[in-house]
Amino acid sequence: MRTVPWWGVASAVVAPCALISGWSIAADLQPGSFDAVSRSISTLAAYGATDRWVMTLALIVVSGCNAITGLALLPAARNGRILLVAGGIFGLIVAVSPQPMDGSSLRHEIAAGLSCASMTAWPLFGIRRESWAPLGLRPGPSAWATGIVAVILAWFCTEVVTGGDMIGLAERTLTGAQTVWVLVVVLTVAGATWRGPAIRQAVPVPASQAAESGSGAAGGESAGSGAAGSGSARSRRGP
Question: Comparing C-alpha atoms, which of 62, 66, 57 is closest to residue 26?
Fold first, then answer.
C-alpha cells in the first residue's frame, strides 16, 4: 500500500492548527469585543478589519496545506484527491478576495461556496474498497464524514440566508470539521502503513503449512543422504 510522505503528514497537521490559531489571534486583535458566534471568519480578513493580514495569512496557510495534502494522499482514490486539491485552490482564491467593508464580494462568495463543496464531497470520492484500505478511506467512515459535514454545511447556509445569529459558530464548526477530517484520514493511512510490517511478522504460520515444509525439508535431506550413499557405494566398487 502506498503511504503519505512526511510533508503530506506535516501539511495535514499544520492546517487545523493554523485555522484555529488564526481566527483566535485575529479576533483578539479586533477593538472591543468580537463576537465569534455571530460574526464570520471572513470579517476578520475583510477590508477595514484590524490587522486583517493575520486571518488572511491563516487562510492562505490552511488552503495551501489542504492542496498539498491532496497531492500527498496517494492511497485515496484519484477523484477524491482532485477535490481536496480543488478545495485548497478555491480557498486560496477566498483568501485573496477579501470582503468589502459594506456589502459582499461575488468572487469571494463563489470561491467560498466551491471550496466548501469540494471539501465536503472529497471523502466520498476518495473511498477505497480494497482489503488494505485504511479506516479513514473505507466506505463507512467516509460516507459518515461527508454526511455529517453536509449537515453542518446546510446549517451554515441556513444561517447565511436567514441572517441568523450563529453564522460565525456554524462557519467555524464547518471549516474545523473539514480540516480535522483530512488530518484523521492521513493519520489512519500513516498508522496502517506503520503497522503493516509488524502485522506481517506477527502472523503465525499454519500448522499444516509448517508440517508440509518440514516434510519437504526431511525429504530433501533423505534424498541428499541417499545420493551421498550411492556415491560412496560407486566409489567403493571402483577398480
Answer: 57
Contact 97, 111 (CB under 8 A): yes
DSSP of the chain: -----HHHHHHHHHHHHHHHHHHHHHHHHSSS---TTTS-THHHHSTTSTTHHHHHHHHHHHHHHHHHHHHH-TTS-HHHHHHHHHHHHHHHHHHTSPPPSSS--HHHHHHHHHHHHHHHHHHHHT---STT--GGGSHHHHHHHHHHHHHHHHHHHHHHHHT-TTHHHHHHHHHHHHHHHHHHHHHHHHHHHHHHHHHHHHPPPPHHHHHHHHHHHHHHHHHHHHHHHHHHHHHHT--
In the block, which residue shows the cell 477579501?
98
Entry pTM: 0.79
Q: Tell me the pLDDT tens digit for each residue of 156-209.
A: 999 999 999 999 999 999 999 999 999 999 999 998 877 654 333 333 444 444
Q: How far apart are CA 51 and CA 56, in angstroms?
A: 9
Condensed to tens digits (0 to 9), the pLDDT of residues 27-79 reads: 999 998 899 999 999 999 999 999 999 999 999 999 999 999 999 999 999 99
Give me the residue label for grid cell 495535514.
12
